[in-house]
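hiii, so i know i said id send this last week but things got crazy w the move. better late than never?? heres the sequnce for the chain we talked about at the cafe, plus the structure i predicted for it. fair warning i was half asleep when i ran it
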Amino acid sequence: MEQTSDLSDIAALVAVVETGSFSRAAERLGISKSIVSRRVARLEAALGARLLTRSAQGARPTDVGADYFARVREAITGLEAAREAVASAMAEIAGPIRLSAPLSFGLAHLAPALAEFAAAHPRVEFDISFDDRRADIIGEGLDLAVRIGQLADSTLIARKLAPIRAVAIASPAYLARMGTPSHPRDIADHDVLQYANVAPSEAWRFEIDGRGEFVKGRTRLRANSGEMLLTAVEAGLGIAMLPAFIASPAITRGSVVIVLDEWTRSETGLYAVMPPGRSATARVRALVEFLAARFGPEPTWDPCWLAMKAQTEKRLSK
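okay and structure toks below
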């Protein structure tokens, strides 16, 4: 005979012994008396031993049943304690969070946000990696990844935190020397600075005549750092397509200006991405909500872009 027992059968026996009655055990467990009786009978059949003596007054354990009860009650108590500990951990904003995020965004915007969250929740422990490679969330055991761009279909759980908008920028000195493009196709006559981690066909795609069209310029410089590209733009080396969260400070101080602002480009997003198949802990849920409130729905790095867009729309409506 197979010597295995379902935990629900063992729990039923423990409840009967502790309450002295099938009826009271059923009330405690929130099930019917017949189910309790069936579970105990199944346990006795699995063990090949009679565990309870039934009478009109109730039920009491046999000698074998009393010994078995003493042993399994400790195990059941341990399981309940473990379950309570897990429930407490899931509900408490405490414990480790392993997180990955893009380098430029991480340093400029996520780092201050994480520092603020950590200060508000001193029992949270961060393990943070800022890296432009796309981390393997499941393989690396991450709790959360912050990602930018269009997300590919996957089993991962994603929450959009904010829109990400890219702008074409150039220095006033460059435009004075080379002229200002008035149409995306004018890019063909200009030096462009390419971000190495995004394909040019995606970076330089505009909505032209109702469809997406890739425009190509003369590549003067390629780099995998947005900050490097911004420095090159400010030095007058060419036109770059950069996210507003990198370009906005330079736009504000006037070292670069937005070009081709009348032409639509599809926006992407800033996402919190989590592994599938398990509920997020309270600490991860709290962090995601905090980041969504801090960055969205209109990010603090976008005022220059939004102001420019409003001026353009006002000009075009006249």
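btw The chain has three domains: 1-86, 93-163+268-302, 164-267. thought thatd interest u
miss u guys!!
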